[in-house]
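User: Quick sanity check before I run a bigger batch. Here is a single chain. Can you write out its predicted 3D structure?
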Amino acid sequence: MKLLRKNALITGGSQGLGRVIVEAFLSNGANVIFCARTAADINQTQAALASLLQPGQQLLGCVADVADPSNIAALFARAAQLGPLDVLVNNAGIYGPIGHTEKVSLAEWTEAWQINVTGTLLACQHAISAMKPQCAGKIINISGGGATNPMPRFAAYAACKAAVVRLTETLAEEYRADHIDVNAVAPGALRTRLTEQVLAAGPDKAGVDFFAKNKKWFEEGATDTKLGASLCVFLASSDSDGITGKLISATWDNWQDWPNHIKELQGSDVYTLRRIIGRDRGFDWGDK
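Assistant: Done. Predicted structure follows.
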């Protein structure tokens, strides 16, 4: 049990990937507090996962909007009931507006930014304040393909996820001396409520190709959510100590072997977002 007696806070933990992360953390011995938007979601999740609890293990739920500073403060105050915070997983997120960017609603754009970026920042601020005195901690931010590839008709989501990765890298450097490891996870193409949102939007809004991909994932299956959850367990555990500031693909990266390459990872910009210049692609013009 890799997380025995660790105390973890997981946002957006009542459904989809977040729910599977909560399950994985419980199965690995952690005490968990999670948040969701409604009391019904909290109650249903606690009832469904009660059988996973070992004697003395705790599972707490808290209704919270991650974009609301007062809600986040209350969430972390409740988390203090578990004891010192060891792990934060920022999972809560939305696609935001879907469709041609020139028609995007400013209100919907702002909501996406508040949940995906501001919500992540608020939780990180509280977590860092809790972790610095103990000179240890793990922060895991859920990112996605929007951070590494353009996503036509999903401009808000793509911009938000790229921002989350740069925030992750910045916090990793800022708090390296405090031994707080901060990483981002790309869990792969999942079949979740976000898939359903794409299908509901239709090919005209979501784009024919992306709609077709989501339809296939919905009907035939996609990346197993347990893979992303397993990566989160790894990053929350002592196995990953010293790995920080990385964007890690649950599907494509050989992260299980990374403990054997800590020094190489620490001394390189691999698995990060960086600008590609001409000479990186063999062009001998334009670069000084």
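The chain has a mean pLDDT of 92.

User: Great, the batch can go ahead then.
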